[in-house]
Amino acid sequence: MWPFTKRVEVEDEPLLRERVQMIADRLEDVEDGIAHVQRRFTRLQQQVTRWAREYDEELDQEPDDEILDQINERRQHG
Questions:
Q1: Could you state, in order of their start, the residue ranges of all structural domains in the chain?
Q2: What is the sign, positive or negative, of the torsion defined by CA atoms of 39, 43, 48, 53?
Q3: Given its phi and psi angles, is residue 14 left (phi above 0), alpha (psi -120 to 50 degrees) or beta?
Q4: What is the model's pTM?
Q5: How many other C-beta atoms lie within 10 A of the C-beta of residue 57?
Q6: One digit per residue, pLDDT tens: the chain, 78 residues?
């Protein structure tokens, strides 16, 4: 098996340049898409972090639940 590729003929050079340009354009599109997804992912991470902090703050506050008050009262009075 021959390990070398066939040399491109001079007359195929414009076609080769066109193909290389198409591949380069597609590569740029893929890179732009990846950058967009990374930006969206970062925003989603930030939003989830905000929601988690708000949720944690709500858990830290005393509950105003009447049922919990009744349970605690019954525990104290036995």
A1: 15-77
A2: positive
A3: alpha
A4: 0.53
A5: 9
A6: 567 777 656 667 888 889 999 999 999 999 999 999 999 999 999 999 999 888 877 776 665 677 778 888 888 886
